[in-house]
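Continuing from yesterday's entry. The apo prediction looked reasonable, so today I'm repeating it with pyridoxal-5'-phosphate included to see how the binding region is handled. Same sequence as before; SMILES copied from the compound registry.
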Amino acid sequence: MSTLKSLANPWIGRLQTYEPGRPVEEVARTLGLADAESIIKLASNENALGPSPRAVEAMQRAAGAMHLYPDGGAFYLRRALARKLGVRSEELVLGNGSNEIIELLARVFLQPGDNIVMADRAFLVYRLVAEAAQAEVLAVPMKNFTHDLAAMRAAIQPRTRLVFIGNPNNPTGTLVDGTAIDRFMDGLPDHVVVVLDEAYIELLPPGQQPDTLKYARADRPVFVLRTFSKTYGLAGLRIGYGVAPADGVELLNRVRQPFNVNAMAQAAALAALEDDDYVQRTRRLVKEERAWLESAVAGLGYGVVPSVTNFMLVQVGRGRACFDALMRQGVIIRPMDAYGLPEYIRVTVGTREQNVRLVAALAAWRKQEP
Ligand SMILES: Cc1ncc(COP(=O)(O)O)c(C=O)c1O
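Holo prediction written out below.
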């Protein structure tokens, strides 16, 4: 062991590391399987349809220009997004996944001694970026696996700078509606920035998506985060964005790398954004298969947290042991102990074929651990 840890900033050594979903190839290696094809991954809430065909074509066309740096200002993509969302290009900032935007927000708004408000069962990355910035985390208990916005509002302190609301939330799959958000935003103290993380929002039919962009348009201190990783099926490319008042975008532009979003990702995202047919098919698949999976899992006698997204929490008893058992059957899901939910696993909604395999694996676990 080197001396590097003793030389590092001490709070870095204390940070919890994020446990990502395990790649299929690694699991195949661990299990000694030559054939990675037989393994299914339902661990990272990816799009079961694969990438949008239009995005794939755009990437093939773009491949020949990969010797060139990308457009650091993502001009065409921001223009297309601005048109689609009804905001100005200046109100958009692109990131290497929306994860990068979450990090940039911590860089811009947090200093040691500040704090963030988040729900106790919300996306772990909020906590990680806050702790890396030496800010404190005020974790507010959820109610029924759903953000309790009144309690979160009451938790705000003078040194609170960021409030994170995952909507829909990962890992619970629950949504707070527009009325609840309006109530939360109404008369909010003016020293806090609200981050509405909408990574999964496009999976909902437009009529069920709360209108939060209106706050950015009205120059309220908000960042609405979206991503191409989920509904648009481009998780491997790492591309997401934030919508905020132009002065907020300008602050993030000061700290981001000049070429933070690669050219392939920009080309693919631009094409995917126009692929309405793919988005419709994604919504349909998620809706139908989620209902099927919820009822099949409930049929095994397991509790399920009703979800509006492409994943759900299932109460299986010993979550980590269940994760290990399913992995041995070639089904990768996510244990939830890192979220303080050791009795649960989180499963991504897959294709029917994948879901059938998941349910069979869960049934086998049920027999082993009634
Ligand atoms: C709630 C939430 N926010 C943000 C992200 C990050 O997405 P990405 O960095 O792929 O855009 C995820 C990914 O799982 C998520 O679940």
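Comparison notes:
- Residues 45, 97-99, 123, 166, 170, 197, 199, 227, 229, 235, 240 surround pyridoxal-5'-phosphate (CB under 6 Å).
- The first strand starts at residue 40 and ends at 41.
Will overlay with the apo model tomorrow.
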